[in-house]
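User:
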Amino acid sequence: MPISVFDMLIGLEQERYRAVILHAIPEKSPSMSRFCQKVCKQTNGKYLDLLEFFIQSQNLSENIDSFSPEKLRELLLEQSKGQSLLVIDRVDFLLDTWHKSERQDFFRFINNQWDSYRDGMKAKLMVVLQTSQEIESLKILDSQGQSRIFRLNDFNDIG
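Assistant: Predicted structure:
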C-alpha cells in the first residue's frame, strides 16, 4: 500500500541519519523528477538536478573523471546549507564514472555518514537514482529496521 512521502519525511526528522534513496526504472525517470520537484515545492525543499548542474559548470564538466565521492559529499554539504530538505536528482551519470569501491563509499555515506548530529548535515537528503541491481541489494535501514530505500511507486501521487 502506497505511503505519503510527507509522512516519510516527517519520520525521517526523528532519525539520526536522514538520507534516503528514491529510485525507479529508467522509463519512469521523468515522472520521478516531476514528483521530486513537487515534493520540494510543497516542503520548501531544494531540488538539484545534478546532471544539469554539471552541464552548467564548465569546471565540473571538464573534471567529471576526477569528481570523487568525497567531492560530491562536499557539494551536498554546500547545497544543503539552510535547507530542511535537499533532493539530488539524476546522480546516475556520476556513479557510472566511479569504481565499485567508490560507489560503495557513496552508499556508506548515505547509510551512516549524513549525520544530523553534525553541523551542516541538518537537512534531510533524498538521492534520486535509476533502479539497478546494486541499489536493490543495498541494506540501508532506519532506527526501526525499516528500509530507507524507496521505489517511486512506494509513494502516493501528490498531484
